[in-house]
Amino acid sequence: MLNEEAEITRCCMLLLRLAGVAYEVSGVVFLVKDYHVAHICPGSHLWAYVLVSLLLGTAAMNTFYTQRGEPSTRGSVCYALGAAGMAAWGGYELIVVSCPPLLPQQIHGYSVATFILQVLSAVAAIICCVGGRVLDGDGGYADMA
Question: Of 63, 74, 68, which Cα lies nearest the Cα of 144?
Answer without folding.
Answer: 74
